[in-house]
Specification:
about 450 residues, alpha/beta, Protein-Tyrosine Phosphatase, Chain A, six-stranded parallel β-sheet, globular
């Protein structure tokens, strides 16, 4: 094994973890990052005596790899990745690589929206039930690092389309597909079908012994299922019950039905309120039921779950104006969910790096619920093109502090200021977490 060379591209959470696992498995390892590597990851790499470079890719040290582990943020079209593939050097994801070194059961969640909340909720239920479970993927500590240094019987993995793209042999024992709406189309040649194919990779390699949980009424999923031969046992969920629906709502009761479980509880008792959160609770409850977690334990966990930071997170009320942080809404459909759950007039802060967004989806909700728009970005032209002349006031800002002050000025007593950007954060912020934290700080400084 040790004469094989593994090169890791990207020195963040995912890359550093993959490098450590490769090193412990006896590979010769080199990590390269075009940007600066954070001090904590340099320390980790040094601790395991892993060679690394930053702010450059030295091709002579990379193109001699036997296999390359690529961070999900690096597109397949990057010239270095194209060269590697031209040389027939396997390029895989951290998840694919780490999956080879664990026999743990995999509960995997994807979808355009709701995946972090559902992932955290599944993890919460399983941990409360006393299972030896790890949390990884797009959340928590690197999956590879946990495989390298810990020993879990189960993993709950949040998987983005980018992570799924680099996976070929990996298998989900339980796959959850929440929904599919256009997102990241800039990475998929602006072809929606390419993105759909990417999301459906969560079912690849599944057998009849595995489970596939999905939203039955998602039009994209429904059409796609007609074209595909999914081998795993199907567990659809929806608000209204059909013949084969396994989780649904009747008479304000959430009902989860599998071969071995019949769980009912009033929807009013769910910790997460709002239609989209009912779906998240259904998916998580189904996964736990399939794993034979006691229904009393599932019910308790669905009641006491605390929610996810930056996802419809209540921040504060200032002079009877509520502030909600939904910085994780990096696409239009996420913003649709947020607006749908609002009960009072909204001042909406949106904008950032536009990924080819179509704002038609939120047009009706904006016209019915939003009284003013604050556009926060370096280039707000796409927002102005769509919203100018259709609405009440539109204000441009270039910092979070400005955005919060303008939104507060436009709001009246009883209103809600909602940060739900529809866009990626990279124009003004490090990431959506940084954007959300700056929002919370600016609100608290009002």
């Amino acid at each position: 094994m040790s004469d094989q060379r593994v090169v890791v591209l990207g020195g963040g959470e995912s890359g550093a973890g993959a490098a450590v696992l490769a090193k412990l498995k006896g590979f010769e390892v080199f990590l390269s990052d075009l940007s600066e590597i954070k001090a904590e990851y340099k320390d980790l790499l040094d601790q395991y005596q892993i060679e690394w470079e930053e702010k450059q890719h030295t091709e002579s040290l990379i193109l001699n790899a036997d296999q390359v582990i690529k961070s999900p943020g690096i597109p397949d079209k990057a010239s270095l990745v194209v060269k590697l593939k031209g040389l027939a050097i396997p390029v895989l994801s951290e998840i694919e690589f780490a999956g080879r070194y664990t026999n743990a059961k995999m509960i995997c969640i994807t979808g355009s929206n709701g995946k972090t909340t559902t992932t955290m909720l599944v993890y919460h239920i399983l941990r409360n039930a006393g299972l030896n479970v790890g949390l990884a993927g797009n959340v928590g500590q690197s999956f590879a690092l946990q495989v390298a240094t810990k020993s879990f019987d189960y993993y709950v993995l949040e998987l983005s389309s980018f992570q799924l793209d680099g996976m070929s042999e990996f298998k989900a024992d339980i796959a959850i597909l929440l929904n599919i709406t256009p997102d990241h189309l800039d990475r998929y040649d602006y072809q929606f079908q390419n993105y759909i194919d990417s999301k459906f990779r969560i079912t690849q390699n599944q057998t009849e012994d595995d489970a596939f949980i999905f939203w039955e009424n998602d039009p994209v999923i429904r059409l796609e299922l007609e074209k595909r031969n999914i081998k795993s046992a199907m567990y659809p969920f929806a608000i209204e019950r059909k013949e084969k629906t396994n989780a649904f709502v009747e008479n304000d009761e959430l009902i989860i039905k599998t071969l071995k479980t019949l769980l009912t509880m009033p929807t009013a008792e769910l910790a997460l309120q709002g239609m989209h959160n009912t779906y998240n609770s259904m998916a998580a409850g189904l996964a736990a039921s399939i794993m034979n977690v006691r229904k009393e334990s599932i019910r308790q966990s669905l009641q006491d779950f605390q929610g996810v930071e930056h996802r419809l997170e209540y921040v504060a009320t200032v002079k009877n104006v509520r502030f909600i942080n939904d910085s994780k809404a990096t696409n239009v459909n996420s913003c649709w969910y947020a607006l749908q759950s609002m009960k009072s007039p909204v001042v909406l802060i949106m904008g950032g790096t536009d990924k080819g967004n179509d704002y038609t989806e939120i047009e009706e909700l904006v016209s019915n619920k939003v009284k003013a728009l604050v556009f926060m970005g370096i280039d707000n032209a796409p927002l102005h093109r769509f919203f100018d002349g259709k609405l009440k006031p539109c204000v441009d800002v270039t910092s979070m502090e400005q955005a919060v002050h303008e939104a507060y000025r436009l709001a009246e007593s009883g209103d809600t200021v909602l940060l739900s950007p529809c866009c990626a954060s990279f124009d003004l912020f490090v990431n959506y977490e940084d954007r959300g934290k700056q929002f919370k700080l600016s609100v608290r400084n009002l």
